[in-house]
Structures are given as structure tokens and as C-alpha cells.
């Protein structure tokens, strides 16, 4: 039997008495009490929430902002408008199924749709890195314009800035959007209540795995395409069934787990999932098993979660499945009175596990 390693073996050729140097070592998970900004603060998980709660909300005290919805719904001359903004720093700029340009349009259009709003206008601000190929920028802009046309919105204002070489990844984009909320629609993160049925509009985890496949050079036996798409039409089809949709949320950064936890805490309800009902494609499940990831924490860019009163859930589900963007929609759980503010999942073995917020992000710079 081999002799166990000693500290001297680990030190190798170090002089006796020298202590090993830990300089340059990194922790795979960001520290929660970090005094400086780290990548985990932008991941949509617990660290992002703490940054918003302790830094931004106290500084920008506003009732609409405090709701922490995907967009703010504001009263304006007797009507209501939804207003949202988002920044996109995805790497690489082009990926299977999309690029940063159409992602920027779809992301903001979908944030407006999660308030039930019909998106009308977008702004587009570009931060370009010195040395970036102009034809590459042009390709992004063309894809962005085509996505706006598909989503039925107009890009009506914008801005361009350039930063020095080495201070960016070619192209960053910020978009802001304005839409109109129909009368009688009141969709908010705090409206979930016990008895509500939780519906997902389709396969989860696809966008994150698509980005990872090209960024890390991984092959999963088949090409994985991002699910980036506008969801306004799907929401309109759901609202045609009932305007009493309680909550809508597109589970982007942090995935389904983050969105459900935020809704549970905002509404003060418990959420119980059935893992066997989760529509996780085989390629995503295999990739996550290989990489040690939880599909519930992997980002999506063309899916929504809906919290619907039980008596209308079947009709809403049928309307979703009849729409191209919701053909794989599925009921995945319900709101319960137990464990308020928490999300749990029943496993295939009949056990239960807590579905918690990720601390940071499994794959940074994903949108």
C-alpha cells in the first residue's frame, strides 16, 4: 500500500519550514460579504439581490422600483404604461440560435410582456470597443433590426460610445422599452396566492447550454440552439383567455430557481414543484449532469413562468400550447400555504428538496 502524502510531499522542493503560498488561489464561489464587486453580483442570484437591496433600493427610493418586477407599471394620463431597461454583455456575440442584437430586443420586449404590456418603442445604446470590426457591428445591428420587426416594436432613439481597446468585449448593448398595459390587467410578483398553478412555457435551460457549448468548445452530440424569442404574442394569447393572470416572469439569469424564489418571497407563499413534470430536454439534462449544474438554475431567454388561478389553468395551458412559443408548455407545480417564501421540489423518488437561489451565476456573461 502506498504511503500517505505528507505536507512535505505537497510542498515539493520547498525549503524545510517554508509555508505554502496561497497567493493567486481563487474560490470557485464568490464570497457573500465581498467588499468589492465580483462577477457573482451580476448573476441574478442571491448576490445580485443583496446588491439591489442594500445599495440601489435605498438610494433610489421609489414604490414602483421596490416591486422588483421585470418592468415598472406607471400611471400616465389616465392609462398605464410599462417601462423597462436592460443591458446585454453576452460572450460570444454570436451563438447558436441568436446574437447579442436579437437578444437585446427580445430581452426587453419580454420584460414588458411580463407586465402584460404590448411593447411599442425601444431605445438602443451601443458601447463599442476600439478595434472591433465594423462589419461585425453591422451584422449585430441588422439582426437587431430584424428582431424588432418580428417583435412588432420600433427602435426610435439611441446612443453610441467607444471605449479603449482591452476595456470591452467588442459590443455591449443597453435597451429600454415602453409598452401599453391593457385595462383590467394587473400582473405583479406579489400577486401569487395559495392554489395558483405554476406553468412553464417550454423547455428550460436551453440558452445557457447553447452559450456554454460554444464558449467552452463542448459537444453534446447535437447542436443546442438558444431559445431567444419574443413572448408578447404568447402573453396576448393567454390574456385572451383571462386577464386575471397573477404573475408572469421570464426566468433569465439565475434560471427558473431564481424567478420562483423571488416570487415566493414577494408574495409570501410557498411553491411546490414536481420535478418529473419539468420539461428539461435530454441534451440539457445530460449536459448539466456532466457539468454538475442544476437545470433549474440555468438561464433561459425565450420562456415564461405563469401563475394562474387553478380554475383557469387548463384553458390557459391549452392556449399556450396552441401558440408556437408555448407548444411545450407544462404545469410544473402550485402555490401552497406551507413553507411561505420557499420553493421545494418533489423528486422522482418521492423525496423533497429545497430549491434555493444560486449564490452567483453558474455561467457569467450569459445575456
UniProtKB/TrEMBL annotation:
It comes from Nocardioides koreensis. PANTHER family: CARBAMOYL DEHYDRATASE HYPE, HYDROGENASE ISOENZYMES FORMATION PROTEIN HYPE. This is Hydrogenase expression/formation protein HypE. Belongs to the HypE family. NCBIfam families: hypE. Residues 1-23 are annotated as: Disordered. Residues 70-181 form the PurM-like N-terminal domain. InterPro entries: HypE, PurM-like_C_dom, PurM-like_C_sf, PurM-like_N, PurM-like_N_sf. SUPFAM superfamilies: PurM C-terminal domain-like (SSF56042), PurM N-terminal domain-like (SSF55326). Pfam families: AIRS, AIRS_C. Residues 193-339 form the PurM-like C-terminal domain.
